[in-house]
Each structure stands twice: as structure tokens, then as C-alpha cells.
Amino acid sequence: MQLDRTAFESLESYVGFSAQDLESLRKFAPVVEPRLGTVVDDFYDAISAHPDARRAISGGVAQVERLKVSLRDWLRSMLTEERTAAYLTKNSRIGRVHVRIELPQHYMFTAMNRIRSRLLETAFAELPHSDVADVALALDRAIDLELAIMLDTYREDMDQRVRASARLATIGQLAASIGHELRNPLGVIESSLYLLQQATRSEERDVAVFDKHTARIAEQSRTCLQIVNNLLDLARDRPPQLTRHALLDTVRRGIELSGFANLAPTLDVPADLLIDADPTDLAQVVANLVRNAAQAQGVEPKIWIRAGETSGGVFFEVRDAGPGIPHQDHARVFDALFTTKPRGTGLGLALCRRVLEAHRGDISLLESDAGAHFRVFLPSREAQSD
Amino acid sequence: MSSYPREKRKVTRLRTPGASGKTLSVLIVEDDPALSENLSEILRGFGFQVSAVSSADRALEFLEQEHADCLLTDVKLPGQGGIAMLEELRRRHVTVPAIVMSGFLEPDHLRRATELGVIDVQSKPVNLERLHDVLDRLTS
Asked: Chain B interface, mutation test: which of A174, A177, A180, most B Cβ atoms within 10 Å?
């Protein structure tokens, strides 16, 4: 975010820069004009004299010449132009040049001070005595304002870096999480292949062993695929393709997708209950909720799915008889990468939330005495198009 | 499949039980049933005696009752993790050489594992040849 006009105005009034000051500077501008070359040369001499500051200027003499031209323009505009939005934008751009060449902030400060001194010296030497005080004060205020603009561009740059590094950290976590999650099924696949090879070479040729391991490999490949699909779904950003259809169909499809259809969740979903939703996305939501419910439970897992109409739309709930989710984790369960499973990428519920947001709906974890209890709300089409 | 050359396997199989004449007993701590079963089968094929449990708590219970010459444990387990389990064993003064398996070992875990005298750290999928060698060394 660039320093906005309001912030700039409040800064102006804080520094005390007024129309009067601009008048004084405008009077001073023609006086200092013949000396601007010296001021600028002096500025870059100081930078070149210092190894750390010099490092920022990598383009050699040609770059210094270009920078000198822009410094001279900048000085001229500081001495003559109205402090408008356009002025602010232009000077922020100059600030950004210094950020881009990575001139350390403290050199920027001392450089500005150097300019301040040279300009003041000129004012004292060249102006009639009666004008000096006004011009000196105006120069101080003007340069303070410029410093504020410069600092703001540094802050802006810092913000961007922080955001970029946060993004990188998330990507890193995501990569680690996915990598970890894929290694387990891969471990099963590799070891099953090894045992298959052994079985092939043995004289018994036990068909049951072949069947067991091929089934195992197929199952684990599906797990890998599921992980990859979840990741891709999360990366994909397309608007939902809304169609009116029976929720029950999507619920059944989701149960199938979850890989836990054998648990035969108890369904209390009216067959004539219609929803306006993307059937693929919503089935994915059901699948993730059912999978979580199944994986949270040990022997004899129980899953209940209930749906009905509610004000403004349709709801459905998925409830299980597992240990439930600790209260302190409730706020984070929908965050990407958050997981309570020993094996989990923390993508499933994040994906659910994203789907529901795209539908302008909602998914929440309800307080429950037994098991985890999720509730999904889908607005009617009328409500979605509002 | 380069991790377990056939020739090596044949040779090593003949060498177990080891010089002491005793069969090495391994306790697998792994919550993924398919992986646990596969590893059990493979280690039995190597000639080791194998038991398997699915959590750190079960492993601690097991070790109270029975002896194991070596632990092969996952890091991520339901409830207490593999590293915490090793710390608990140390508190109980139970000394069992351990091999740690993990999909992704954070530097922190690795440091703690080393401090706890872990004899090998394996990333998943497990390198079976190396696993065999490490276990074999315990036998001799």
C-alpha cells in the first residue's frame, strides 16, 4: 500500500508544511538552480566514498549519471510543485528506486541530510537576509515530508517481503506435509511389491498372497490419488457450477468417494430435498467429512448424516461416535495444514470451507458431547445470487 | 526397487539367527495396518522374530511384559509420538535399540532421536537392505 493521500495530508499538517512554505521554496528555486549540479555531485560523491552505500549502485558511471538526473528532477519538483496526489505518486516512485537498489535506510537518511545541508548553505549564502529564515524552515519541512515518503516506500517493501516469506513458509509446510503424507502409502506399495516379487519366486505361488498385495497396492494408489486430488482441488480456483439436484444423490456420491461406503452411514436425508450447488464440489465436501469421521473412530465406527431445510437454504450434518475434536482446536480445524490425525495433510476441511465459501454457504463444527459434529449450510439459489 | 538386491537377501537370510544362535526379536510400532503387516512379513522373511503394535502406549505395555531386542517405530503415531515414547522408555530405564521411521523428519526430531540413542533413522519408504543390515549387526 502506497502512503495514501489522507495519510500524506495528516503528515503535511504534522510537519507543518503549508502553502506559505511552498511560496518560499518557489522563490528559492531559481536561486539554487545553478547550484543543483553541485548539490547532486556532492550527494553521489558521499555515496561513492562509502563502500556499503556504493555497493547499492552496481551499474557504474552510467547508472550514477542517470541517478543524478532523477535527483535533480526530484529537487526541482520539491522546490516548485504542489503537494498533490500526482506529486506523492511520483516521489514514492523515486523512493522505490532507492529501495530497489537496496540502499540501506541509514544511508538514505544521511544522504537526505547532506542535501538538506547543501541547500541550507546555499540559502544562507545567496538569499537576502530577510528571506533566509522562511526558506530554511520551508526546506526543513519539505525534506521531512520527503523522508516520510521514502520511509513509507521502505515500509511497503518490508511488508511485501514479509508477505512473500510467509507465503514461502506456507508453501514449504505444504510441500512437507504432502511429501510426508505420500510416503506412507508409497511405503506400503513398495513393501507389497517386494512381497509380491518374493511370492512370484517361491514355488508355492500362493494366489491369496497375490490377491492381498495387488489389492493393497490398488488401495494405497487410491490414497495417493486422493491426496493429490485434494491438493489440486485446493489449488484450483473456479467458480462452482451450480445445478439444482437432490442432495441425497450428492451425499451418496460423496460416501462412495470417501472410500468408506462399507461403513454404511445412517442417512436421514429426504429424497426430495433439492439444493443449488456444484455436485462435484459438494460430493467432495461430503467425502472429506465422511473420511474424517471414519478415520477418527476405532472399531465399529458409526456415522450419521442428517439433512433438512432451514431458513434461507438447506443444511446437512455429519456426526460420528469418535473421540471428538478438542475444544482448543475448534478454531483451527478449517485452517489449511492443520490436522489432528497422525496421518493427515490438513487439506480436507480447508477444502470444505473453500467450497462452502464459493457457494456463499458455511461449514461449522458444532459443540458436541460425543464425537465430532459438522454442519453445512447451503443457501438457496435466490440467496446465493444476492 | 534398487534398495534390496536379491543376492544380498539370500546371503543375509542364512546368517540369521546370528552368531549368538538367538533369533533377534523386533517390535514394530506402526499405526498403518497395511504397512505394519508388510514390514512384519518382510522381517519374518529375513529370519527375525516379529511383534507389532499400533501405538506408543501399546508398545510401552508390551515392553513391560515382554522383551524385544530392537524397536522399529514410526515417528507419527496416534496419541504419543514415537520420539516421546523413546523418552518415556528412557525414563523407565528400559534400554532398547531403536530404529526410527518417518515420512518427514524435522530437524528437531532428528536431534532428539540422536540424543535418545537411536541406531538408525529411516525415511519412508524404508530401505529394506539397510534395515536388514542394521538389524543384522545387532545379531552379531
From this structure: A180
